[in-house]
Amino acid sequence: MKTLIRFAAAATLFAPVAWAAVSPQEAAHLGQDLTPLGGEKAGNADGSIPAWSGGIKSAAEAGFPNYKSGEHHPDPYAADKPLFTITEANAAQYAAKLTEGHKALLKAYPDYKMVVYPTHRSAAAPESVYEATKRIATTAALVPDGNGITGAVGGTPFPIPKSGLEVYWNHVTRYRGLAAARQIGQVPVEPGGNYTVVNLKEEFFFPYYVPGMTEAGLDNIIVYFIQETTAPARLAGEVLLVQETMNQSKDSRRAWIYNPGQRRVRRAPNVAFDNPGTNSDNQRTDDQFDMYNGSPQRYDWKLVGKKEIYVPYNAYQLQSPKIKYSELLQKNHIKQDYARYELHRVWVVDATLKPGVSHIYSRRTLYVDEDSWQILAVDCYDSRGKLWRVQEGHAINYYDLPTLWTDLELVMDLTNGRYLALGLQNEERGSYDFSIKRTAADYQPSVLERRGIR
Length: 454
Fold this sequence. Notes:
By secondary structure, the chain is an alpha+beta fold. It has a domain of about 325 residues. Helices cover about 15% and strands about 30% of the residues. The protein contains nine helices and 17 strands. The chain has a 13-stranded antiparallel sheet, with helices on both faces. It has a two-stranded antiparallel sheet with strand order 1-2. It is globular.
């Protein structure tokens, strides 16, 4: 099966993008030599990446049988000891397994380091997701221009990807439960280390994973999202609503904003691409939320292949309530002692800006976890082709579902020493609450005024 994966990746370098689903013979590998979501089940040659044995499937299996959804997630790997630490002094020794972004961070900041721990392939999803993934693997396809998918619902559409676009849509549609709510901090950190916390309330609803859902029943919406700014006072009350579409060529993203000063709900077609993200002080673009989101139409996508890379993973300590923001948020980057890196196999995808279209990033290299389809790192290049910003997605298994998702996202600017931390939970009341019940009716423009604070 490894030969098949290498062939699939290499083929995209020399052939047009493949729009068709995989054959039944290929799909039969899922749950056999491939994991149910398409990763290689076997470990690597030297054992530094273990075989996937199912991941963490419940809070009880994580060692916390009394855990309640919405609480901070205790670390099932707290007893692990670091294997080694990568610094600028020894970066050359590990260069083959570092992203270009991490090489640049190590070079730019003398105190930056990557503490590497034993690899745990903790990613898991419910059996219903595995079953749907195998079922739709033979029916899922990209729409003709690649700006959407069809023939899929309830699972990963392209578990055996043959193009970079397929990997991207796997990330967009990855399982994250049916609904989730959280309260987080978003912090633009100045070069000298000063910052102001912006507090956000967020809710997600994923009709794509509702049991019994059909493609027709989705009405082309795969994700509903509401984000409400609650502090500081000068920003409080703004509410953003997004309805993300499955086929963006048929119907592009729908978005609305409630402005508390005007007390009006207005369409927001500019909530997309490289427009500034909500209250991010221009430190991230709209499409950098969730590492990368929205329409892929402005880029040409190339599947480079699969590599073993040191990536942020099992970052439970980064949401610990024992750590204060003032301790975590330091000059130029977070306190790296609290970050955890592991060696994992990732799909590497290059997105290059198409001629004649605009975006502040001319190229983006994505590093996508083979076990979950979560983007774990992105290298972002400016219009001259120079590495500009580095994204990290520090992920954990939210074992109360289970699903692997980020608990902290970082966008670090190499040109000025600023960075953005999004998803901070340490000083908030807890983590994602997956117990909430929602329907599409809760995510309509008519509800925005009722959610405004002032």
